[in-house]
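ok new one. same drill as before - structure tokens go in, u give me an amino acid for every spot. 295 of them this time. try not to just spam alanines like last time pls lmao
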């Protein structure tokens, strides 16, 4: 194997939250490997450029990662840090996920405007997963909202929405947990697969030992189960499916959310089994729910 250089270039989207998340990974590497020189390389992705268009029209989850994938493939960066829930279910050949961070708070959170709230305005929420589950929890209807976390908060405080529903992990990492009005438990609002986990992607066979300092087994096993569940249901970023896994000792309990094609009724089901079989558990639960609740 070729000797690795002493400079490690880490790629990130250029939003404030993405940079903060990259810094979490970089700080862990600095502590474990002080001899390495780290360089942050930021770039704007397709998903960041076209905020006036829906993710469906742009091509789904890949719009947040393909520029970073290309930079990895071309050797312009060595690693890329992503929110796992933004990543496609299949990685490009030769560009695997090398490490999963310890999971931050996986819950969704309700954020209210700083000034007077207009209950006639919709709740800002682009995810169909959230929209269908929120029908039983909130009186207001939902409307799409795009943009980074600060842009969304600005739209809320201008009075365009009565509230926002955002991932608690992003708010906490950005130091904005003070804006949270309430947290939704996973029993109320099942999180997106991978929510709260950072994924570090790189080229196969490179930097794996360096990333041992950031890799978390609980997060990796949960991610394997959750992503296998979504993959077995052919779920993408616009599909109203969700999965949340909780490792406990040698076991893992996975809860899945399934909405039959064309329907709006949400079905939940759980499965528990050995954490070493995380991916199999996810696939098994998905196929059972599809058989049981599908058309």
């Amino acid at each position: 194997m070729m000797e690795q250089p002493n400079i490690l270039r880490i790629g990130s989207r250029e939003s404030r939250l993405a940079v903060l998340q990259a810094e979490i990974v970089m700080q862990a590497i600095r502590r474990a490997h002080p001899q390495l020189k780290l360089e942050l390389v930021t770039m704007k992705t397709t998903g960041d450029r076209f905020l006036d268009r829906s993710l469906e029209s742009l091509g789904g989850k890949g719009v947040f990662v393909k520029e970073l994938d290309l930079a990895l493939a071309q050797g312009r960066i060595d690693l890329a840090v992503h929110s796992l829930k933004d990543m496609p279910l299949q990685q490009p050949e030769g560009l695997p996920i090398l490490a999963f961070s310890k999971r931050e708070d996986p819950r969704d959170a309700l954020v209210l405007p700083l000034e007077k709230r207009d209950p006639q305005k919709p709740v800002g929420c682009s995810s169909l997963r959230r929209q269908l589950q929120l029908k039983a929890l909130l009186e207001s209807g939902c409307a799409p909202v795009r943009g980074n976390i600060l842009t969304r908060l600005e739209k809320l405080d201008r009075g365009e929405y009565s509230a926002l529903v955002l991932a608690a992990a992003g708010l906490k990492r950005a130091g904005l947990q003070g804006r949270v009005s309430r947290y939704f438990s996973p029993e109320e609002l099942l999180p997106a697969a991978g929510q709260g986990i950072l994924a570090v992607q790189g080229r196969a066979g490179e930097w794996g030992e360096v990333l041992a300092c950031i890799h978390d087994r609980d997060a990796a096993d949960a991610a394997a189960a959750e992503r296998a569940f979504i993959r077995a249901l052919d779920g993408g970023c616009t599909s109203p499916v969700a999965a949340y896994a909780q490792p406990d000792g040698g076991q893992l309990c996975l809860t899945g959310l399934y909405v039959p094609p064309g329907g709006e009724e949400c079905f939940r089901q759980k499965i528990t089994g050995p954490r070493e079989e995380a991916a199999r558990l996810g696939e098994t639960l998905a196929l059972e729910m599809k058989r049981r609740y599908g058309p």
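The chain is about 30% helix and 25% strand. and btw The chain has a mean pLDDT of 91.
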